[in-house]
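new request in #modeling-help
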Amino acid sequence: VQDALVDARLTGDIEDLYRRQGERLWRSLLAYAGDREIASDAAAEAFAQLVRRGDAVRDPERWLWRSAFKIAAGELKERGRRTRVEVEASYEMEVPAVDLVVALGELSDKQRAAVVLHDAVGYTSKEIAAIIGSTPAAVKVHVARARRRLRQRLEDDR
Amino acid sequence: MKLEDRFHSLERTPAPPYWADVVDRATRPSVLPSPRPRAFERTPHRLRAGALAAVVALAGVGLVFKAFEPFGGSPPPASEPSTDSSGLAASPGYSMLWLCGGGIGSCPAGGVPESLWRPLRIPTLRPDGSCPASPAHRVVQLFGPALGEGPVYAVAHEGGVLRFEYPPDPNSVFAGSAWGGNKVLWFARPSYSGPVLVRGAEVGGTHEVGFSGGTSTAYSSLQFPPGQGWRNWPTATRLQAPGCYAYQVDGTNFSEVIVFRAVAVPP
């Protein structure tokens, strides 16, 4: 039983997944949540839960992304806000990226998750639907509306 | 600027490394309520059901606590020293650790050299009776605010106060022990690659400080093996009473004292 939960080989696989996707997941969560702390917390917790569940998870990558976004969504809901973006322009984050994250904060949860997963990560509508619990058709609508609103908000984009 | 270019600029934002946090979360049971329990409740229903089924299955074979034991390093002794009494077990050396410095692998045999077992230098309370607690400060982005002047640090709990359940919750990994406790993550700067010995005692009192690395057994010291890079060790500090306490951290070329306050909370 212990081996099933904490198998070192399995953990090695997840560590490899972290190396391949850890940074991208964190940045996506930062774009989605607008908060470094939530991004770090959600990413680390999702990976940790993946390690604990071991080989009970059939598709670790999809499970990871879905869980991380759900954890981040739960955090946002608990804090009752998404409008106050915590990121600031710095040597670590360029101004266009900060503006984007701020603008993302004005979208609905589903629109924001959909456009981040589509445009920042490159997932298909079908894959995004599985992650955010929607349908591919609805995801396409979310992405289109999100892009339109982002372009309106970021005036110099035209 | 085009929208896609803004997304590209987002990709240039450096992400902090957080694998050490993943390992810490994955390998260590929460002995206190999670600071954000609702976030965990929002995981998919299917996952919650799966987790519940796993717990039930584990309980059924009486291996709940086994599941929380190390997945790296040497296994604990077949018959662990009991800590049902108030005594602390002698540290078995490096083998009590869950993980050796953040990597997942075997701990070396043995323990720290004799030269690290220096006399304890526990400070005294201030004249007004207050605790001269060490301030928490950010050492590196990889870890949270920490206590100590280095090169070895203890990640601070909220407000620099270590809260521990006493008596231990029967559902915690410390169940059955006379020692409560809470997790403490230790880390070392790359500038120091040698062995580390951590001991502790109450400041202005006679209570002892225990340590553990994954089981309910409370040991009298922590021993970290040599290694390279930013090393970290998930551990637990074990206590029996609230108060002001001090760690003494000894390495081959340094000896530092870290003072912290501890508060007992009911299970």
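bot summary: The first strand of chain B starts at residue 146 and ends at 147.
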